[in-house]
């Protein structure tokens, strides 16, 4: 049996692997929540822009609640009250549900701003060329409005990735929860938190750099 390589008192190579697996869990729950939440948020943003009275009166207050109530409270309440209505979800599923709705509530305003960024004259011109309403949305509003609000969406995505650490209160072993477990065992808080921060940076930095490269390409 080969001895375990130990870097510091109590911290070894297996612990580093444990943090790496937790970082992948953070990436997975963030990817699911941001992807689904972005699609829902775009739909909600369109509803808010169109301003249909019934939809606005129902959608807008719900989105305001999810934007205003601290995320950790949403997670705890949903996880504890979901079984009452017959939803026996594990911490991962509960985290995905709440993070998705939370993302959608933030993206909704971003999407509405993107639609508003496309001027009425341009949209009228598209309609005068024979485009239908949906063709106008797809070929005019989405490319132009999407570019206008892309930086804001990137900010939302990065924020949700960091906020995913709050799912640890439900017992889901993502990066923060794994760090807490290792700190308790190794008593090396500075080392563990530094490594956790490095993993968060490794997850976030490529996204921000790729987004910056896209913006630069669009500006040319």
N/C terminus separation: 59 Å
Average of the residue pLDDT scores: 84
The main sheet orders its strands as 1-2
Q: Measured on Cα atoms, how large is the radius of gyration?
A: 21 Å
Structure annotation, total helices: 8
Any low-confidence stretches, pLDDT <50, length ≥5?
none
Strand content: under 5%
Q: What fraction, in percent, of the residue positions are helical?
A: over 70%
- Describe the sheet with the most strands: 2 strands, antiparallel
Order of helices and strands: EEHHHHHHHH
Based on Cα principal axes, name the global outline. flat
Number of strands: 2
Structural class of the helix and strand makeup? Answer: mainly alpha
Report what the structure shows:
This protein is mainly α. The chain contains 8 helices and 2 strands, in the order ββαααααααα. The chain has helices at 13-50, 53-68, 71-81, 91-117, 120-128, 133-163, 175-186, 189-219; strands at 6-8, 11-12. It is flat and about 70 Å long.
